[in-house]
């Protein structure tokens, strides 16, 4: 059903503005700059010089990157990942064919826009066959073919997800069902097959592309295409979609109420706002009433990423470059998904912790930077990934022995690693008297009292601080807090936060995690433990409520989100136990998930509760910390690129 109607040419000029906002050019974005369409020889002398400097990856001493890095270290020019590749200048212009209809197996017709390499002076489409990048876009924005990749010899297909923008639909679940799950995967497989075999100009080699929902769609499609498919590489950026994003420690996060917000349907490009709103309201009402979709049953298991999905992607032979940031909601899931990919590649259980010394492969890599959701992406490095796997170029990128690329906060530098967690043996730190927190349990026991309420109110938080680390230390991985406690109510809610405390007393939040007692059952088989058997990453099934008996001491294993944090010499670590997330922490939905939207049953059983935190010989409360010596990991080469938007990125892979 490919046709050539709606053809438009994006000229070589730096700026193209539409006369008025349209679906493809919404009001805030109707003026677009196409910096990569002009051939390199037509750039001004000064712009060529600037690009040459940036392409060399030169960083500037003490360059402050607001919101991203504190200070970029001065260093010499570095190569690109692998050391054998350069992005090169744009070679082509782009001509676009709009609203191409694609019929799915159930008769629903999707639409796609296709960007073709073109003569940059005449706009005429170039002959020949090219590899194809495909994105499945659910938004009302970002649906244009990407000129950066087209100008470097790729066809770019941007297909609207069913029920959105110009595509037909929806099916039986207008808000949630088109976004994630089996139907998206089926459509993705069909679009891939069409792009490989029926799209004019395709050489049959496909890469999947996109961030956030577009990245999640990549994972579902890549898991469903089967072995020996045309898909040869994916970059699921900002893309893990684990159950923990929607439910923080068993409590609905700030994301869940948004399903009832009609604006979400508009952002997602849906044409069926009344139906979407009704569907979302019914979903939120059911969760609030502790109905089936308040638990991790079939509904969520079909729509969230899992270790099983990672196994399928490995079985299908598809290399993946994951990309996220420490402040992003998906960062914890991305680290666990990368671990699952590496385990599956070695024939190990995908949901397990990696073993010390376990072999790794450069086919599955992860980059975690100092940013939030949707930030820090770099098209040049993405291009190198596609050139490696879709064009078969010997870039050296796949040969890395350290496929985990992490920004170490505190020291403000990039490091490379081989496995996750980064620590084989964790260090238990015990809660003790006088608000202490030490590697040796105290001889005297006791209890501490904390009440259910906002953390800025007296009596609603407890703090435990380590002695100063004279030589410094590094927190490197996920953290597990096993807190023994009793409650005056038939439930208990705990939030564990780790802070870096400077000698003067100033505290900086590192990471946190939470758990509600009624969802505290532990999946022993899936939980991670270190070589000594200490719990390092607790896994809870969240499939049903468990009983919390008032006055009875129970153990609550809190999964604290991972971090890579350099604790400077003279600084301490502090554990803060609280019972509610602050209103500020519940004001957004793209940061680390917090317990914000309690079900009616949770709210009733938690309100007014008082908790006794145990630190006795019989019931020790302990936090297992992944500690490395200070700055133990070597600093990785890093720098700017022409497409990094002044973000320092790791370049020595």
Descriptive terms for the model:
eight-stranded antiparallel sheet, Rossmann fold, 12 helices, Jelly Rolls, 2 domains, 18% helix, 653 residues, 33 strands
Radius of gyration, CA atoms, in whole angstroms = 25 Å
CATH architecture group name of the largest domain: 3-Layer(aba) Sandwich
> Proportion of β residues?
25-35%
The biggest beta sheet reads: 8 strands, antiparallel
Alpha-beta classification: alpha+beta
Low-pLDDT regions: 1-78, 172-178
Return the CATH class of the largest domain.
Alpha Beta
Helix content: 10-25%
Q: How many domain regions?
A: 2
In total, the number of strands is 33
What count of helical segments does DSSP give? Answer: 12
Average pLDDT metric: 86
Q: What is the terminal separation in angstroms? A: 43 Å
**CATH superfamily of the largest domain, please?**
Alpha/Beta hydrolase fold, catalytic domain
Task: Describe the protein's architecture and organization.
It contains 12 helices and 33 strands. By secondary structure, the chain is an alpha+beta fold. The protein has 2 domains: 15-242 and 304-420 and 636-650, Alpha/Beta hydrolase fold, catalytic domain (Rossmann fold, 3-Layer(aba) Sandwich); 427-629, Jelly Rolls (Sandwich). The strands form 9 sheets. Strands 18, 19, 20, 22, 27, 29, 30 and 31 form an 8-stranded antiparallel beta sheet that branches. Strands 1-6-7-9-8-10-11 form a 7-stranded mixed beta sheet. Helix 11 (379-390) links the parallel strand 15 and strand 16 (404-408). The model is unreliable at 1-78 and 172-178 (pLDDT under 50).
